[in-house]
Amino acid sequence: MRLPRVDRVAARPELDEARARLGPRGVVSIVRQIVQEERDRLLAGGVGAPTEDAIVDRVRAAAARVLGGRARRVINATGVVVHTNLGRAPLGPRAVRAVSEAAAGYASLEVDLATGRRGGRGAFLEHALQVLTGAEDALAVNNCAGAILLALAATARGRPVVVSRGELVEIGGGFRVPEIMAESGAVLVEIGTTNKTRLADYERALDAHPGAAVLRVHPSNFVQLGFVERPELEALGRLARERGVALIEDLGGGALVDFRGAGIVGEPTVADSIAAGVSVVTFSGDKALGGAQAGIAAGTADIVKRMRKHPLARALRLGRLPQAALEATLASYLEGQASEEVPALVLTHTSAEGVRARAERWAVSLAERGVAATAVWTEAEMGGGALPGQRLRSAAVRLEPAVRAEELAARLRGAVPAVLGRIVDGAVLLDARTVLEGEDDLMLDAVASILAPRR
Ligand SMILES: *Cc1c(COP(=O)(O)O)cnc(C)c1O
């Protein structure tokens, strides 16, 4: 039985739009793949060669999937501020300008403009991070997973590293502490139990392995309750100092400011870790810090220097665009402007009453367009593995459509820009804490275009 010809299918007028957006070769590649699948099916004993029309339909669907796989703008009404699946922290106008300038032109990345000679990359980052964390030196790489890999490789390759069994965790996206340790060449020494690890466990392990490093991991995406124990960071810091060994902490979230002002208690800051005696702490640039994707290591001059010189440092180098965004974000912190300029901080620190008033304005505006919606109190969260289990008082509009909530949520995701809410008790909630300033009308228009009665 004959299969439709690839060139004939690819030239069909139904595929004009796909051809315009993916190019002729892009369409031919999809047709070829689908025809090949049919050929394999027939060779394996399948029956009935598909018609050309059937192939065209499948090509159109496949092309739509490819085009839909491009990242596009989303209005985040989920109530999760640092949303891992939505690109984590949004950047403020100042960081966006810095990225745009760095992207469009040349930049003094590795030249000292005072002397005209080759200069070190990241002098401003180092300085800002020293000031903001109290560390002797600091380095930024591509992400926090890279920072911890580099910290372990530079300090503990081929050497024992002591870790509590309660901290051998998976952070997400397949990042598992034992596996990253193995990749770094460090030798894992497990101590304690899942729920309880005492200072004495660390002491015994260091007796048995003198010169081992100690790794502490922040359990960012889960909480243990009940019969649990682990030593205070200060106690570990003292022990590491007494024994002259390195204490490495993977903090993940990495707040540079105290979040108590937002009603979030107990989230450690990077400065707390340094003050507690951590030798090197690693954290993300786009979680609680609110900057670009980056992994930051702040610590002693000796360790950071070793990390900088390690061959992996080049492989994990921070790109110039995230570097520009991170520098601008840290400048906001240095100048004391972070709570106005860094969106992750602005969104978390807005008062619950302010968020509620916004949700009520949305409800009124939707009602004027014939869309039934009510303002309700909700709980939002920081997200991004940062500050787990901590709720932010928030408010939302609750949409009351005739259709099922799942179906409405899907239609909102299909809007331009896409609107992402969450489903609670069979209704779609659009949380007012996480929608960025200036996005209100865009979001309400999108909702009305889907739900307003036709006139
Ligand atoms: C999020 C997180 C990481 C990974 O950070 P990335 O920047 O995504 O690489 C590592 N460790 C901890 C404790 C985290 O919370």
Report on this model:
With 455 residues, the chain is of the alpha/beta class. The chain has helices spanning 6-10, 16-43, 52-68, 93-104, 123-133, 144-156, 177-184, 199-208, 233-243, 270-275, 301-309, 311-315, 320-334, 338-341, 343-349, 352-368, 405-413, 440-451, and strands at 74-76, 137-141, 160-164, 170-172, 175-176, 187-191, 213-217, 247-252, 280-284, 295-299, 373-381, 391-399, 418-420, 422-424, 427-431. The strands form 4 sheets. The chain has a 7-stranded mixed sheet with strand order 2-10-9-8-7-3-6, with helices on both faces. A 4-stranded antiparallel sheet has the order 11-12-15-14. Strand 8, helix 10 and strand 9 (280-284) form a beta-alpha-beta unit. The protein starts with 5 loop residues before the first helix and ends with a helix. The structure holds pyridoxal-5'-phosphate (PLP).
Structural key phrases:
455 residues, alpha/beta, 4-stranded antiparallel sheet, 44% helix, globular, binds pyridoxal-5'-phosphate
Give me a quick take on this structure:
The protein has about 450 residues and is α/β, with parallel strands linked by helices.
